[in-house]
Structure formats: C-alpha cells, structure tokens
Design a protein that fits this description.
This protein is an alpha+beta fold and 125 residues long. It has 4 helices and 5 strands. A hairpin with a 3-residue loop joins strand 4 and strand 5. The radius of gyration is 22 Å and the shape is elongated. It starts with a helix and ends with a strand. The mean pLDDT is 88.
C-alpha cells in the first residue's frame, strides 16, 4: 500500500507541475532551438533582411518573388558543408529551399545586426 500511495503523490505533483508549465508557456512564443540548423534559421529570422543589388534585379525582372525568399529563410535547410562560418564579422550560409522551392538556394550573410541575401542560386533538374 505504501508504494501505491507514493506513486499517487508523485503523479499528482507531476500533474500540478505540468499544469503550471502549460499555464506559463501558453501565449508565449517559446522555442527550443537545440540543433545548429534551427539556431541559424532562428537567428536570421530575428534580424532585418537586406537584399543585394543582384537579388533586387531578380525581383524587378520577376524571376523571383519576396515570398519565396521569406519561405526559404524561415523553413530552409542550412548546408554547413557549403557555408563559411569562419569569416569575421559576418558568416555566410548556404540555405536551400524545401519541397516546392528545392531548386532554389540562397547565400546569406549573417551579421550582428542584419542578414543580407547576397545571391540566389537556381538549379534545374
């Protein structure tokens, strides 16, 4: 009987703790960015995005739209083997799109105060 009572007290305390966690985290934009790829995407998402003149020309000629750039910057895959993370003060990241945008990749310069899209790479299959 003693083990059952201990188990019941443990579960009731655990349930109360979970209710408190749900109460405090509800409504907040809490994220757990543990993996390096998600840290880079999260860091770029917090900064203002600037576009290079080459990318602006692609936008003007309607070969690319801003929604595609935003989707890649939010949901893209960071390829660290093609990225250059040893440069100072800004790191360069190669971010490729997912699903519909899998043929499009971006070279992004991630600085302290801003992120700049330097180049757009499109491939054909």
């Amino acid at each position: 009987m003693r083990k059952i009572r201990r188990w019941g007290l443990y579960m009731s305390g655990f349930a109360i703790g979970m209710v408190f966690l749900l109460f405090f985290w509800t409504g907040k934009r809490t994220q757990c960015t543990w993996m390096p790829e998600s840290r880079v995407i999260n860091d770029i998402g917090k900064k203002s995005i600037r576009l290079s003149p080459e990318v602006r020309e692609l936008l003007k000629s309607e070969q690319l739209d801003t929604l595609s750039i935003q989707l890649i910057l939010k949901y893209g895959n960071v390829d660290f083997s093609k990225s250059n993370t040893d440069t100072i003060p800004c790191n360069f990241y190669h971010i490729s799109g997912r699903e519909d945008l899998k043929n499009t990749a971006l070279w992004v310069r991630n600085c302290d105060r801003f992120a700049r899209v330097e180049k757009v790479i499109t491939t054909t299959d």
